[in-house]
Specification:
The protein is about 70% helix and about 0% strand. It is mostly helical.
């Protein structure tokens, strides 16, 4: 297994890593308590603790293969996201970094905080070489979008649409299609936002949204007073008139409002 190729470890440490890989974090804590002299297990227990509570409960002395990840957690809790990202990068510069869901998830979250989207794609690619699953599809798609790699966004979605069915993803796909100058395809995707009822075709409503666009300046001045449907109409008015940046901004806000409405029902 990968741990044996990078550091010399004892049987409890092998057992600890295998437990951590499958999310058995309480068992990791118990094993570390029984082996207090193992720096590797003490560091692993800090990661397990964080998985359980979202906090680092204590410090651990010594250096192990996991030291950069542990230091990244300490930096993150101090609000030093850039330092945390640098420490995560250092971890993946080792010849064979240990890989599991928890480590990739933490790494992608830290890289997202610091807008290091290329690094997100890098660690996900490492994960995908080891695990053949769809755990980080959304993170991968969001990274492509923020890097303005819109063709990659659409391609990834088309290959995995059954795993990417939520409002945020539909918004990103719709906006990517807009930036690729495919407004008809974009409108079909954006119509899938929660609360969206059946809409007429692009051609049938282009004139209607033109009427909305004629009074768009007036609507912008009272946007906070508009209903969700009126905001939606504004978004499509922007869309059909090529004002993609404003369409994106409005659909982001609309998507968040719809999410909060659904969560309180």
């Amino acid at each position: 297994m990968a741990v044996q190729n990078t550091i010399t470890i004892t049987h409890p440490e092998i057992e600890g890593w295998e437990l951590f890989e499958v999310g058995a974090n309480l068992e990791v804590l118990d094993l570390a308590q029984k082996n207090p002299k193992s720096v590797f297990l003490q560091h692993l227990s800090i990661l397990a603790d964080y998985e359980i509570s979202g906090k680092t409960q204590r410090k651990a002395n010594g250096i192990s293969h996991l030291s950069p990840i542990v230091e990244a957690l300490y930096s993150l809790e101090k609000g030093k996201a850039k330092e945390a990202a640098n420490q995560i990068s250092l971890y993946f510069q080792s010849s064979s970094p240990e890989i599991c869901y928890s480590i990739i998830n933490l790494s992608s979250q830290i890289f997202k905080l610091t807008e290091k989207y290329k690094d997100i794609l890098h660690v996900i690619s490492i994960y995908k070489k080891k695990y053949d699953n769809h755990s980080f599809l959304k993170e991968e798609l969001v990274a492509y979008y923020n890097l303005k790699q819109y063709e990659d966004v659409v391609s990834l979605y088309k290959s995995n649409s059954k795993f990417l069915n939520d409002p945020e993803i539909h918004r990103l796909i719709g906006m990517s299609l807009l930036f690729l100058d495919k407004p008809k395809e974009a409108s079909k995707i954006l119509e899938k936002l929660p609360g969206q009822m059946e809409l007429p075709t692009f051609e049938e409503r282009q004139k209607d949204y033109g009427k909305v666009y004629d009074k768009i300046r007036e609507l912008e001045t009272k946007k906070s007073e508009l209903s969700l449907r009126e905001l939606e109409d504004m978004g499509f008015a922007y869309l059909f008139h090529g004002d993609y940046a404003k369409a994106e901004q409005l659909f982001v806000g609309l998507s968040q409002k719809l999410k909060s409405t659904l969560c309180t029902v």
